[in-house]
Design goal:
The chain contains eleven helices and ten strands. By secondary structure, the protein is of the alpha/beta class. The strands form two sheets. The protein has a six-stranded mixed sheet with strand order 1-2-3-5-7-10, with helices on both faces. Strands 4-6-8-9 form a four-stranded mixed sheet. α4 packs across α5 (142-150) and α5 packs across α6 (152-161). The protein is globular, with a radius of gyration of 19 Å. It starts with 5 loop residues before the first strand and ends in a 10-residue tail after the last helix. 37% of the residues are buried. The structure holds hexanoyl-coenzyme A. The site of hexanoyl-coenzyme A has 21 residues, from α2 and β6.
Length: 257
């Protein structure tokens, strides 16, 4: 498959997607979202791949949805064409996805990053949901996910003022997992992905699913869900292999079974 708006590579057991619309600061148009979804499905169905990293350029992870593409839309066109349906594919991905963010991460760019499982940021990263300045509000989950990451007070501040938050503030607020020097960003994200991809894929997927459950349910329900999946892990050969290897003081060889 040849891509026009993204670059797709593999690095060992990691899939790497790089947004490639430099002339528009990687603004996310419909073509890019469609190509991203194709790449994600390819990685998801490739048994050799255990994790995906999504990144942009040094200047911009993504400066939001493409305003020029959206500007003339009417309500009925947007409704009938199911505008935004394609945006949630990333949140349905079972294998982990890491966003490696440098520069502007705005609007729909931040909404996509929040659908990923980890956000690794460069010191130059700038985060905002500036939709309010355009006469709209976030529409790809931003009003729901941001408060879950950073709490209502700061989320309300960002969404109602449209102001930018730098990487240090984003780390303090709990939006990003790690902040690194700009020249270390991709290496750091790929190293984290490589580590994740070295473990048992089904166990990693179940761990991801269980953590995500914490965002959606009560503590008691979440703990019950965890218990069910935890017990099911004793039916896998990877659990036997992991524990045998520990006791024998050797490296485990996981077979995703
Ligand atoms: C379309 C965009 C764009 C965007 C930048 N560009 N952001 N095009 N959609 N979101 C284009 C500019 O028009 C310009 O094209 C080129 O990229 C370079 O941008 P400049 O503005 O010249 O760069 P700079 O002065 O460095 O300013 C950077 C910036 C600014 C602060 C990031 O570009 C900006 O404010 N962009 C819009 C950010 C935004 O509002 N995002 C939210 C979008 S709404 P030309 O052709 O002039 O060179 C959204 C809703 C999501 O995301 C809802 C669900 C989908």
């Amino acid at each position: 498959m040849s891509y026009q708006t993204i670059i797709v590579e593999t690095r060992g057991k990691t899939g790497l997607v790089t947004f490639n619309r430099p002339q528009a600061l990687n603004a996310l148009n419909e073509a890019l979202i469609a190509e991203l979804n194709t790449a994600l499905v390819d990685f998801e169905t490739n048994p050799e791949i255990g994790c995906t990293v999504i990144t942009g350029s040094e200047k911009a992870f993504a400066a939001g949805a493409d305003v020029k593409e959206m500007a003339e839309k009417t309500y009925i066109e947007a409704y009938l064409a199911r505008f935004l349906d394609g945006w949630t594919r990333i949140a349905d991905t079972r294998k982990p996805v890491i966003a490696a963010v440098s520069g502007f991460c705005l609007g729909g760019g931040l909404e996509l990053a929040m659908m990923c499982d980890l956000i690794v940021a460069s010191e130059t990263a700038r985060f905002a949901l500036p939709e309010i300045t355009l006469g709209i509000m976030p529409g790809a989950g931003g009003t729901q996910r941001l408060p879950r990451f950073i709490g209502k007070a700061k989320a309300m501040d960002l969404i109602l003022t449209g102001r930018m938050m730098d990487a240090a503030e984003a780390e303090r607020a709990g939006l990003v997992s790690r902040v690194v020097a700009p020249d270390k960003l991709l290496a750091e994200a790929l190293a984290a992905a490589d580590k994740i991809a070295s473990y048992s894929q089904p166990i990693v997927m179940m761990a991801k699913e269980t953590v995500n459950r914490a965002q959606e349910t009560s503590l008691a329900e979440g703990a019950r869900f965890e218990r069910r999946l935890f017990l099911s892990m004793f039916a896998t050969t990877d659990q036997k292999e992991g524990m045998d290897a520990f006791i024998a003081k050797r490296k485990p060889v996981f077979r995703n079974r």
